Amino acid sequence: MSTSSATGGVEGGIEDRRDQIITVAGRLLEEQGPDGVTMRAIAAELDIRAPSLYKHIADKRELEVALIADAFRQQAEAFEEAAQAGEDTIEAFAARYRVWALEHPHLYRLMTDRPLPRSELPEGVEARAARPLVEAFAGSIDHARAAWAFAHGMVTLEIAERFPPDADIDAAWRVGFAAIASSTKPAIPNR
Amino acid sequence: MSTSSATGGVEGGIEDRRDQIITVAGRLLEEQGPDGVTMRAIAAELDIRAPSLYKHIADKRELEVALIADAFRQQAEAFEEAAQAGEDTIEAFAARYRVWALEHPHLYRLMTDRPLPRSELPEGVEARAARPLVEAFAGSIDHARAAWAFAHGMVTLEIAERFPPDADIDAAWRVGFAAIASSTKPAIPNR
DNA sequence: CGATATGGCTAACGGCGTTAGCCATATCGA
DNA sequence: TCGATATGGCTAACGCCGTTAGCCATATCG
Predict the structure, then answer these.
(1) Rounded CA gap, A136 and A131, in Å?
(2) Between 20 and 30 A from A12 (CA), which of A120, B36, B106, B117?
């Protein structure tokens, strides 16, 4: 059952349709936001009727889980790409995090809004996306979590347009990340 | 048909209908989450039918705006209460922020999830709730925003149960806030 | 006393996710 | 080759949702 990952191709036809459905759902999410992702809209895009979707997926939630798994993969790739490009500093990580989230705001919210359906996610997917951050703060998991929370807070507030229009968001990023990053270097006693 | 039974089920003085509706909506939100706040449920609570609600409010959005305004007031009161109790440190502010958010998770999300309907909010309501933080970081608005983002990130991740079950959330709060708070204290004359 | 405003009501619309049940086609075992 | 079965479509419909239209009893007021 555990919904093998998309490219598995182990069994036949169903997997194809299922992948199409997930792909379309993802596209609708990015283009129109969560309200655009309706079973009827997905079906229309595939030239079938909504009830037929249920021959391939159990319910809408399963669709969301698949999108979340995909989002983790995308995010991880973005980070790994950065690492390969030699950008392995905490600041580079922060920049990638922000850029990815702002490029996929609906997907980002989908994957952070609610409790993670960990048992239904392909294993390792969460850890893989988190690894760069954890490594960057190798010394302290608490600092890693603080940094994550800061980045997440900045990103969600920016996505939700909660900063005043004249706010210098770049400056807040710089100041916040510098504070958290520098406080974890034990070599530097203090400032 | 209709009834002279004036005692519906809600009490609390001589509110007009509009206030009753908002009160009930707020209670449903806190007790059952956003999915529990339906026009039919609100109406049922007041022993009327859903369409009658529209004699008092324009639409559901207006209801949400009212709840958001209320949430800001509550939050501001919580902070001011802390100040009067002599807790005016940044750390005390952080603690109050966290406690209030965790006590009203649905309300917190309602007020931070989406763009603020600033033009429809009573004036000053946002500034009042933000004042303690701004004052605590009097020197730097950027630090204030960074601190807010950190607190917001911590709180939303905690509400969404996104930290692993064994995570030491208190510790993350401590290191994060200490880092941001301390980076602004040692008079860094700048910006 | 009559006009008007207020605040209920029922019926209904179009949307949602989802289920039930039907049917054509493809596949496969005997 | 034939029949059973699985697959993946379909329509109809259910019970929700927010919302509108239109009716009507009561209260208020000139």
Answers:
(1) 8
(2) A120
